[in-house]
Write a structure and sequence with these properties.
3-stranded antiparallel β-sheet, alpha/beta, single chain, Rossmann fold, 8 strands
Length: 218
């Protein structure tokens, strides 16, 4: 069984995907972490983020490994665990430049498909999972939430990680990411193709319970 969860940054998809995978006892594939990992590597190498060729070369040269478990996805770049390091505001700000590069998307989509083939049954989350990476997935979801709710969620995550950042900076980052990301899941919005859930006024547990009920109903 393949379950895809797409949606905007801060909609709760990462947390929901991880907890849903744990409930189903299947691996969790965090594809957004792959784009973050390339952005992290590019920052380390001092790459020019306005130069798509330079960014693509980073994506081609870096050794990216994912350890997908039911409760987490650990990420290694050139043998180093960067699972926490890729969650900083600096990496978040750089990631849209990586994500909108067609050559990098092609590289990472192919890697995601190879991982999916190996895992066979899993929960995958990202921006283009249901319509591009795994179009034959049995179950497809899109999570949405208001910008204000998403910004507050992301701010709390960053504060918990020790980041000193303002709500204004977080909202700006989300607006930039929204502009690049929404095109990825809009093609999914045909009748019967996907289930859209607005998480603005829902707890994580409520979202997971709803999705689990929909999955059990077939």
């Amino acid at each position: 069984m393949i379950v895809t969860i797409d949606g905007s940054a801060g909609s709760g998809k990462s947390t929901v995907a991880r907890k849903l995978a744990a409930r189903l006892d299947v691996p969790y594939l965090d594809t957004g972490a792959m784009y973050r990992a390339v952005a992290y590597a590019a920052l380390e190498k001092g790459a020019d983020f306005s130069d798509e060729q330079a960014l693509s070369e980073v994506a081609r040269s870096v050794k990216l490994e994912l350890d997908c478990r039911p409760t987490h996805t650990r990420v290694r770049v050139d043998g180093r665990d960067v699972s926490e390091a890729i969650r900083t505001m600096a990496v978040s700000a750089a990631t849209p430049c990586v994500a909108r590069c067609p050559a990098i998307r092609e590289i990472l989509v192919e890697q995601q498909r190879r991982i999916g083939k190996r895992l066979r049954s899993f929960v995958s989350e990202g921006r283009d999972q249901g319509n591009v990476v795994f179009p034959d997935a049995e179950h497809k979801f899109i999570l949405e939430a208001s910008l204000e709710t998403r910004a507050e969620r992301r701010l709390q995550e960053l504060i918990a990680a020790g980041e000193d950042v303002s709500i204004e900076a977080v909202m700006h980052n989300l607006r930039v990411r929204d502009g690049a990301d929404s095109k990825q899941w809009q093609p999914l919005l045909g009748p019967g193709q996907v289930i859209v859930i607005d998480t603005t006024d829902m707890t994580i547990q409520e979202v997971i319970d709803r999705m689990a009920k929909l999955l059990s109903a077939g």
